[in-house]
Amino acid sequence: MYNKSINFLIVIIGSSLVELLRGSVSVGQSTLTCFYSLHTFLLSLLTAIFILMYFPMIHKQGLL
Questions:
Q1: Do the Cβ atoms of 24 and 30 come closer than 8 Å?
Q2: Of the chain's two ends, which shows fewer C-beta atoms within 10 Å, N or C?
Q3: Pairwise CA distance, residues 38 & 6, whole Å
Q4: pLDDT single digits (tens) 17-60
Q5: How many helices (H) and strands (E) does the chain have?
Q6: Rounded to whole angstroms, how far apart are CA atoms 46 and 57?
Q7: What DSSP designation does 42 have?
Q8: In angstroms, what CA-CA distances link 9 with 3, 34, 52?
């Protein structure tokens, strides 16, 4: 089976991207912490963005 890692697929920033996603050189506790922080931040940010888009829309329709 032909298996390439992301390091080789993305030439310029591949190794830096892998280390950023993993949280360190190897997969471990730092990886879990990194993904947890990323998910909580992104989900909160997306929720806030959608709410801020929703309020003007319902205000314009006269529902608020």
A1: yes
A2: N
A3: 19
A4: 777 777 777 778 877 888 888 889 999 999 999 999 999 999 99
A5: 3, 0
A6: 17
A7: H
A8: 11, 22, 37
Per-residue model confidence (pLDDT) at position 10 = 66
Question: Two tokens at 27?
Answer: 């997969």
* Structure tokens, 34: 């990194």
Angle between helices 29-60 and 14-22 (to 10 degrees): 90
Structure tokens at 58: 């319902």
Type of residue found at 45: L
Tokens of 30: 């730092």
| Residues 19, 13: Cα–Cα separation, whole Å | 10
- What is the rounded distance in angstroms from the CA atom of residue 55 to the CA atom of residue 42? 20
